[in-house]
Specification:
The complex is a heterodimer of chains A (about 270) and B (about 250). Chain A contains 12 helices and 1 strand; from the N terminus they run E-H-H-H-H-H-H-H-H-H-H-H-H. Chain A has about 270 residues and is mostly helical. Chain A has one domain. The two termini of chain A are about 25 Å apart. Chain B has about 250 residues and is α/β, with parallel strands linked by helices. Chain B has a domain of about 140 residues: P-loop containing nucleotide triphosphate hydrolases (Rossmann fold), CATH 3.40.50.300. Chain B is built from 9 helices and 9 strands. Chain B has a 6-stranded mixed sheet, with helices on both faces. A 3-stranded antiparallel sheet of chain B has the order 2-1-4, with helices on one face. In chain B, strand 6, helix 8 and strand 7 form a beta-alpha-beta unit. Classes of the chains: A mainly alpha (about 270), B alpha/beta (about 250). The interface between A and B is large, with 35 and 42 residues. Strand 1 of chain A pairs parallel with strand 4 of chain B, so a sheet runs across the interface.
Chain lengths: ~270, ~250
């Protein structure tokens, strides 16, 4: 029977999550510091990311719309919004593969709540997302249909998407710390996910017998709760239902994994 | 403020992973082949670093840990700081802990001195408010002056240590964990630093210090625990030569 750290070291997973939320200096401020750090000696700083995303979206946007024979004015806002959201998801998942190992020095020095490490990554990814979001603003304003009040739905959508992403990346970080073979597996899944989700192609342009690829893919529903409002459409009910389902499942799995692993993570690093 | 550390039958085992233990493929194969290669994937190799420790530290205890390299001193300090949860037995810790085992953790070479006071403070477990309150005092003690606006990578190694030391010793803690008595900087700074560390220790309730120096242990500790091969060999109370401090009642 191991009885341990009654008061000090978070007696339950719930307490550990609460302790993490109560100490924003451990993630929000450190994430902000990380970003500042990364671009300290660069003049444009994180706006280099904005520029490279802009280059990517304009060239690929022109290329795909020609290849798929679609109207570029209609296609470009769709592709820009989807791509920027996907970059946020992919960045967080790829960072999560080293979600604990990259903080080895901290983990071996002090018992901080483990959820803080992934929160720090999430804030980091979100800051980069905001820089990239500039492109969506420009494209929707000048190429697309402009803005409507419907776009505000994207805010709760983004909150829901971020929560799902947080729990999935937490579970992924735990697995990748224990099984190092999971790191390339996750990285490959992220790459494949980009092509299998409706980002550069549209769900309605799939041939009828293949439309299940978009319908059964939960990523496409989660994408739409943020992307559709940005493009002036209200997300379908099914998109919300699938997203809330994803949140419940990912939260349950991540909490269960953390409960099992939190006393072992320091040993696995 | 009450501090207490209580361990019974405390044990720590480090799993030793090699490629085959960490691989998911082996786990999957193992499941699908009905344990045919179980002898490969199933046997876990582990190193027992601490074995059946029993102790109780109460306010006023100044514990000196002695023992050869690999006796388990540093591991014990890490277990007490909460980094390694014990794999056997029980451990109860009450009180705020300050771990001075590696005072440079959190320091970032590219960031300025002031930013590093913040970064190191967060790692020590201080809140943002607490750090802001202590900022001036830390800056003054470090004697780094205008250098605090420069990136830490431009510092000499002695100056870096001085900064790390100034932040790490600014915290109020009930329990202090130390790996060797810290000595930093040139002769004059070291004297000042030693005094500050002494004050910090006197204001705490429990000190646990691993050391190879018998002199240091004799000077500072009233309890001497000798360790070997992860076990406690002896645990004896000793008298401190100096007048005992009055923190016991704190």
């Amino acid at each position: 029977m191991v009885k341990y750290g009654v008061k000090l070291f978070y007696s339950s997973v719930r307490r550990e999550f609460l302790a993490a939320l109560r100490q924003p200096e451990l993630w929000a401020l450190l994430a902000w510091h990380d970003i500042k750090q990364r671009y300290r000696r660069s003049v444009l700083g994180p706006f280099w990311l904005t520029i490279s995303t802009a280059v990517l979206i304009s060239t690929l946007g022109a290329l795909w719309s020609t290849l798929f024979k679609m109207n570029v004015l209609d296609y470009l806002p769709y592709f820009a919004a989807g791509n920027v959201i996907w970059t946020y998801i992919a960045l967080q998942m790829n960072e999560a593969t080293t979600g604990f190992t990259q903080f080895e020095h901290l983990i071996k020095q002090r018992r901080l709540p483990f959820p803080t490490y992934l929160l720090r990554l999430l804030v980091r990814s979100f800051i980069i997302f905001l820089h990239n979001f500039l492109i969506v603003i420009l494209v929707v304003s000048f190429v697309g249909n402009g803005w409507s009040w419907v776009a505000l739905i994207a805010i709760p959508g983004m909150l829901l998407l971020s929560s799902i992403l947080y729990f999935i990346s937490l579970g992924c970080a735990i697995l990748c710390t224990r099984y190092r073979d999971m790191v390339p597996v996750v990285q490959n899944l992220v790459t494949v996910g980009y092509f299998l989700s409706p980002i550069m192609w549209k769900a309605e342009s799939l041939p009828a017998q293949h439309s299940w690829v978009a319908g059964l893919n939960p990523i496409s529903h989660v994408l739409d709760i943020v992307r559709a409002p940005l493009l002036g459409q209200v997300p379908a009910l099914i998109n919300w239902l699938v997203s809330f389902g994803m949140l419940a499942i990912s939260a349950l799995i991540a909490t269960w994994l953390l409960a099992r692993a939190r006393n072992r993570i320091a040993y696995w690093i | 403020m009450s501090a207490l550390i209580k361990a019974s039958q405390l044990g720590v085992e480090f799993p030793v992973f090699n490629a085959s233990h960490r691989s998911l493929k082996k786990r999957v194969l193992n499941a699908t082949t009905g344990g045919r290669i179980a002898s490969d994937a199933g046997t876990k190799v582990s190193v027992r670093a601490l074995d059946g420790l029993n102790f109780e530290f109460r306010p006023g205890d100044r514990v000196g840990l002695v023992g050869h390299n690999g006796a388990g001193k540093t591991t014990l300090l890490r277990v007490l700081s909460g980094v390694y949860p014990p794999s056997r037995g029980s451990l109860e810790v009450e009180g705020r802990i300050a771990s001075l085992t590696d005072i440079s953790v959190g320091i970032d070479g590219e960031a300025t001195g002031f930013e590093n006071i913040f970064l190191r403070g967060v790692v020590m477990g201080m809140s943002q408010r607490e750090i802001n309150e202590k900022m001036d005092e830390i800056a003054e003690f470090s004697e780094l002056g205008d250098y605090l606006n420069m990136p830490v990578r431009t510092y000499s190694s002695g100056m870096q240590l001085r900064l790390a030391f100034s932040v790490s010793t600014s915290i109020q803690a009930d329990i202090i964990l130390m790996d060797e008595w810290l000595s930093v900087g040139d002769a004059s700074f070291n004297e000042k630093a030693s005094k500050r560390l002494q004050d910090m220790v006197e204001n705490s309730s429990i000190l646990i210090m691993a050391s190879h120096s018998e002199d240091t242990i004799k000077r500072l500790c009233n309890r001497r625990i000798s360790m070997g091969h992860g076990k406690i060999i002896s645990d004896i109370r000793v008298d401190m030569p100096a007048a005992p401090s009055d923190v016991v009642s704190a």
